[in-house]
């Protein structure tokens, strides 16, 4: 499980990284709001722990930008203890809200709850329009018709469905699916996109995988 921690106070950040790490969690720690946006766009995190009082972009604005494109759980960990602040955080799309100072055991329990919920939701199904991916069986269907994909095509489809509605660059796709630095001389991404389209789009009336010229690709249902 990989967590993104956004905390600008050094002592608190070191304490959380150490404590969560000792409990088997991999933690990436950033100290400003812009880095949260960048990291969340590059890595598929299982949970974001977010302070409100971040430099650059505060936690409210970070969450506004993360939602609705990013669906990973977000837990606010902040000294903002007013009821209005808690309500605001939840209305913006946070999954939980914990006030500082806190007991680490309570934070850890809340983290595990969010990780379990996220895992349970992911284990069920990813879908867009009539396209469905049944994750436990690794079965892909569109309009009830089974679609056979290679391992890389399947990984590529999962990336698009987990980030549906978000334009993904060729560089990001290469890093996430092939774990490689993008080389402008290779067309591995274009070839994979073309093969995936041939299976999930071309036999059907409505395309779901679209090219955004000059930027990359996006999976979404268009009118």
TrEMBL record:
GO molecular function: DNA binding
Chain ranges of the OmpR/PhoB-type domain: 123-221
Gene3D superfamilies given in the database record: 3.40.50.2300, 6.10.250.690, Winged helix-like DNA-binding domain superfamily/Winged helix DNA-binding domain (1.10.10.10)
SUPFAM superfamilies: CheY-like (SSF52172)
Organism: Chitinimonas prasina
Domain Response regulatory, residue spans: 2-115
UniProt keyword terms in alphabetical order: DNA-binding, Phosphoprotein, Transcription, Transcription regulation, Two-component regulatory system
Gene: irlR
Modified residues (4-aspartylphosphate): 51
InterPro entries with a match to the protein in the record: CheY-like_superfamily, CusR-like, OmpR/PhoB-type_DNA-bd, Sig_transdc_resp-reg_receiver, WalR-like, WH-like_DNA-bd_sf
DNA-binding region in chain numbering: 123-221
Protein name per UniProt: DNA-binding response regulator
